[in-house]
Amino acid sequence: MKTQIWIRVYPAAFVFIFLGLVLLAAGPRLSNAESTVLIDNTTPAFYNTDLDFLLDGTDMDRFPLAGTFVGEHIIFTTAPDLSPVDDILGNWLTSPVPELNGYWSALQVIPVAWPINTENAIVYALDAGGGASDLLATFYVDNGIHIWVNGAFQYGARDPLGTWYYDIPLGNLAPGLNHIQVLREDSGGIAQWAMSITGSPAPLPGTSCELVYVDHAINAFGVAIRNQQTGLSDISVAPTNANVDIPSFDVGTTEPVIVAISKVDVAANALARFAIEDLDSEQLPCDWANVVKQGSEVLTLEGVTQAQPLLTIHNGVPGFKKLHVTVEGETLSFDRLSDDFQLEQDISQLLTTGDDTIQVRGFGPPGTSATLLVSSGELDSM
């Protein structure tokens, strides 16, 4: 009895040894020398292998019947209909966090080969730090693939013999946790892939100072100080009519340090002027102030630098009806303020000398107040 051996012919640039493992003698070219590899064949992900043959024949272009070695090379610009396997996939495309059911594995390295004629799904969880732009995917797949970024469909393709795809644009990643979802398809012969996704990471934020809580009932305030680039080295403060509690922290920490501030005399203005140092010995100032209406007095901040372009105002309870902030003779008027309302204002164009003076005057009945923070940072685009 003779044994028939079927050999699939691939381009000469690649040599495949198929005994359950696949050796790619020539891999993908680099997409961009300045980009960073975000995902490759070694990146752990959540894996769902229970799709089996359930999609076969539901879409003959995307999911042909088992043992189909013919057809066209097709690029898909719309997402596939996965309703036949909704129960198995669950809410895997939910954003911002997919809801994975019991069919999904724990994090594992995704095998480059899988059982022929079957489909499977992958979810990569990726911390993008400050974000990443210009994502490019380069991959080999036999036979088909569909890719989503945070649940939004980006790209799909299928080739009856398998092929390489280079520099496929996948958009951008927002800061923090992102998810890239992949569906792999095979219709016979060999089921395998190789994949790399690159992107240009945004620089992590440097020193930041943010108002994180205001408790009007007890005149308590919280300021989060952080540096995600080098980490924090030191925080010092010069308070006026304020008790400031700076907790101990590990030198070099990139996590927020929450500083607690309380007023000594609640009927008077208060200041806390911070000097924040990072591991590169660079210092940035951050000024906190609480303004109380008692008469016609004005709170004055001197020595404000161009490194403090962001003004945050949190109106008190009871709060001012109107607030004037004057920077080197230029007055910003904030009218029709409501209690417990917070706003941000870019004052970078008004900071011209590097040693500027800010004056704050509130308008309202006696006892009304507002809390201000003058810090580094940018306006929240949201």
The mean pLDDT is 89
Q: Name the overall outline.
A: elongated
Distance between the termini: 72 Å
The spatial strand order of the largest sheet comes to: 3-8-7-10-5-2-4
Note the beta-strand portion: over 45%
Largest sheet: 7 strands, antiparallel
Compute the gyration radius: what is it?
Answer: 29 Å
Helix % is under 10%
Order of helices and strands: EEEHEEEEEEEEEEEEEEEEEEEEEE
Q: What is the chains' assembly state?
A: single chain
Query: With helices defined by DSSP (H or I, 4 residues minimum), what is the helix count?
Result: 1
Backbone structural class:
mainly beta
Count of spatially separate domains: 2
| Unreliable stretches | 1-33
User: What's the β-strand tally?
Assistant: 25
